[in-house]
Amino acid sequence: VIDAVRSLSTWRIERRATPGGSARYRIGSIAIGVVFSTAFGLVVSGADSGQFFEGLWNSTLGEPAGFENMLTVAAGLLLLGLAAALPLKIGLWNIGGDGQLFLGAWGAFAMGELFPDMSSSLLIPLMFVAAAVCGAIWTIIPALARVYLNVNEIISTLLFNFIAASWVIYWAGAKWGEEASAGSVKSRNVPPQTILETIPVGGGYFVPIGFVVAVVIVAVVWLFLRGSVFGYEMSIIGSSPRAATYAGMPTKRVMIAVFALGGVAAGLAGVLEMLTNVQRYGPALSNNTGYTGVVVAVLAGGFGPELLVMAIVFAVIAIAGNILTITGAPGELVFAMYGLTLVCAAIGQGLRHVRLVNPARAERDGSAVVVPEGAQ
Amino acid sequence: MRDGLVSASIATAIMAATPVLIAATGELLAEIAGVYNIGIEGAMLIGALGAFIGVQHTDAVLLGMLTGIAAGALASFLFALAVVVLKADVVVGGLALVFVALGLTGLIGKDYVQQPAHATIPKWDIPGLSDIPFWGEAFFQQLSISYFAFLFPVAAVFLLYRTQHGLNLRAIGEDPGAADATGLTVTGWRIFYVSVGGAFAGLAGSVLTLGIVGTWLPNVTSGEGWIALAVVIFASWRPLPLIAGALLFGGLGTFGNVAQVEGWSITPEFFSALPYIGTLAMVYFLALLRIRRGGGAPWPAALGLPFFRGAD
């Protein structure tokens, strides 16, 4: 054993000249992470694995109610993923998705309060516009502080979540609260005509309109950014802000606009969740969904189809976590599962940049030996 | 306002500032070494639960705090391995630490929720001084750990600016390539100081459970680790201003109580947001002043960048 350790000790970690196969590492590490975190959840909760997988099947594809719920969860994660993925494209972090979601839903609920009797074909679009505007406004201060004051946007967007949390409690409780609301703080209901319906897709299955809307939004943004000057500027700023500035691109304006666009996406997630699921204004609109959206964005590594895939994967993990809580595990378990998946993915991402080299062997062969790190 | 209310508020502000100050001091050391530990909130949470479990099983508050310190250090050590050795992205690694910590502490702490702590961090009345009217109650009847916490930044000044060790540490955060050329093992130093930062975060967490709250609650840190990060920015990466930043956060947190006693007709939600609004506003204001003066970036030049030996 000691000899084996000694021979291992001659191995060194070296930087690759160019990072290794991106997709291979990404998919591999995420797959390892999902399997690992699911196994972890199963073991620590002590759930019966047969029952667990049966429950998971019924809550995702096996039964219409589960299918609908899965897509509703995925819709929120998709938009919050977009909220984080857009700034990430230019090297900025938006960790404030939760706050932007709450502000978006606030704007939408306010429209419902102002025009409770308006017809749904007018009121729903109005609520969406209000949500988009409010979500964007909530990003403005952190974005300006980042661009003009050089204050780290991670901290700014994060602390804005805490401010938004108080905002929600105030409006959902003191302002719009129900007379006799028991338990958690929640407002009265949204106007009934604004509840989003579902679309039948055959076999007794339904797709929530909210999910369709979310997918359309992401598709439109993706297609727009692929074919526009703005999207081109984003990709240049993302790879080299300095080059972009020298090329005369409005770097600062693009940064602020991208942040605002992220806020729009998060705000829309808020109104969709409110009109699909919760139907009230209150803290229940998000279960740290904004933070999970960051994870989705990081793992997807883009804001196109890969974002949709990751949103659905994380919706399934969220549902798996919920099933495990039925057998007595605490609700926080699902965050450990997200975190473990993220750890695997983060390490996989890092390992792309390095390789293990055994100098003794490299000398003998005349070349460095590349070991696939996926093996660890 | 009545004197009693003012002195009690000052005392509360100092108590509330204590965990933030401890965590911020640890985070500062890690950042001086060049590693941005976004996951400090997670290390704090793990330390808080570790300390509480330690106390429930040993009935000794010092052993509990040591468990908390060790738990926080271990959590950050693992983060350091991922970030420093395996070159994982610091932000992703930090977020992962927070998520894992939130999940694991929820899971492991399930049976400890709301149990009264078997032992708590004692308050120390400083003989003589604590009997002074007003001043005594405000400043000299604190948790024992608070007196030490306010000395940590002073010790950090000494370490960073008066010793060879501190010079080396700063070199590693400013120019790891040059530090490496002088024979310092950048990777080792960084892992060590991230772990030290985690130990501080663990201590901060144990102050929360064993000193302030007196029990374990899920997500008991509720963002104080994030505040510690903001306090480091507020302090422009210098140790002594950390004290002002932590006191600002702690002080703003007392206004809710003052408003209640005085009967101000302002909604309590405003006061729960006030510490965050105020801290952010001060961070922005100081950044604005710095830009106006034409000052350069106050953070270590290599902060957040992975170090590859022989890369440049």
Describe the sheet with the most strands of chain B. Answer: 2 strands, antiparallel
What is the percent of helical residues of chain A?
over 70%
Structural class of chain A: mainly alpha
Rg for CA atoms of chain B: 20 Å
Sheet having the most strands of chain A: 2 strands, antiparallel
Strand order, main sheet of chain B: write it out. Answer: 1-2
List the secondary-structure elements of chain A in sequence, H or E: HEHHHHHHEEHHHHHHHEH
SSE string of chain B, helices as H and strands as E: HHHHEHEHHHHHHHHH
Rounded to the nearest angstrom, the distance between the terminal CA atoms of chain B is 62 Å
In round numbers, the mean pLDDT of chain B is 92
Integer average pLDDT of chain A: 86
Adjacency order of strands in the biggest sheet of chain A: 1-4
From the N-terminal CA to the C-terminal CA of chain A, the straight-line distance is 19 Å
Oligomeric state: heterodimer
Q: Strand share of the residues of chain B?
A: under 5%
Tell me, briefly, the overall form of chain B. globular
- Amount of beta strand of chain A: under 5%
Descriptive notes:
The complex is a heterodimer of chains A (376) and B (312). With 376 residues, chain A is mainly alpha-helical. Chain A is built from 15 helices and four strands. In chain A, strands 1-4 form a two-stranded antiparallel ribbon. A two-stranded antiparallel ribbon of chain A has the order 2-3. In chain A, a hairpin with a 2-residue loop joins β2 and β3. In chain A, α4 packs across α12 (289-300). Chain B has 312 residues and is mainly α. Chains A and B meet through α6, α7, α12 and α14 of A and α3, α4, α11 and α14 of B.
